[in-house]
Amino acid sequence: MAKDYAKAFYKSKAWEKCRNGYMQSRHYVCERCGGVATICHHKVYITPENINDPSVTLNWSLCEALCQTCHNMEHHKSSITRAGLAFDNNGNLIQK
């Protein structure tokens, strides 16, 4: 979930265009595990100090296409599911 200072950015047309273009360019393949990517992750975390800097927020070289599991690993440093399980795009627990 986006932090309060970032909510408007993540709903912006600029981010939508950047995210959609980047994800399409990566064919929605997770750049870490090869699964189905559903999240365009910022390699440089968005902060109140850089939220208005398009060289950070809209820069494809700082983006990464990730599946939900890899994104969770990035932010939580551990999987929220047991090995071999994942959540699909609808939030259902499935076997990988």
Shape: globular
Measured between the Cα atoms of the first and last residue, the distance is 24 Å
Give the fraction of residues assigned to helices: 25-40%
| Side-by-side strand order of the widest sheet | 1-2
Number of distinct beta strands: 4
**Count of alpha and pi helical runs:** 4
Overall pLDDT: 87
Q: Radius of gyration, rounded?
A: 14 Å
Indicate the low-confidence ranges by residue numbers.
none
Number of domains: 1
The major pleated sheet works out as: 2 strands, antiparallel
Question: What percentage of the residues does DSSP assign to strands (E)?
Answer: 5-15%
- Helix/strand-derived class? alpha+beta
Helix-strand string: HHEHEHEE
